Amino acid sequence: MKLKILAFGIAKDILGGTEKEIDLAEGTTVQHLKAKLEDEYAELKRLKSYFIAVDDEYAENDQVITCTNEIAIIPPVSGG
């Protein structure tokens, strides 16, 4: 299945844009998505942390993703 990934903050810089499309098998979990992203974009591993949001809510690693879900990478946020 093809997933559209939205990227924000430093994740946008790492992925080279605000949107990327990635191919994953049906029944993929958030953990599998993270592993695939980190294989393709090794700089993600260097982030202290980042979250995956599915349909505007933070997702757990075991959550299953479908092609109809909106997926976003939420990097760490700093403030001042």
How would you briefly describe this protein structure?
InterPro entries: Beta-grasp_dom_sf, MOCS2A, Mopterin_synth/thiamin_S_b, ThiS/MoaD-like. The protein is an alpha+beta fold.
Tally of helical runs: 2
How many beta-strand segments?
5
CATH superfamily: Beta-grasp domain
Note the main sheet.
5 strands, mixed
Oligomer: single chain
Fraction of helical residues: 10-25%
Rg measurement, Å:
12 Å
Describe it.
This is Molybdopterin synthase sulfur carrier subunit. Keywords: Nucleotide-binding. The protein has helices at 10-15, 30-40, and strands at 2-7, 19-23, 51-54, 57-58, 71-74. The protein is an alpha+beta fold and 80 residues long. It has a five-stranded mixed sheet with strand order 2-1-5-3-4. Strand 3 and strand 4 (57-58) form a beta hairpin. The radius of gyration is 12 Å and the shape is globular.
Task: Describe the secondary-structure layout.
Blueprint lengths: L1 E6 L2 H6 L3 E5 L6 H11 L10 E4 L2 E2 L12 E4 L6
Parallel strand pairs: 1-5
Antiparallel strand pairs: 1-2, 3-4, 3-5
Which features does this protein show?
Ubiquitin-like (UB roll), Beta-grasp_dom_sf, 2 helices, ThiS/MoaD-like, 26% strand, alpha+beta
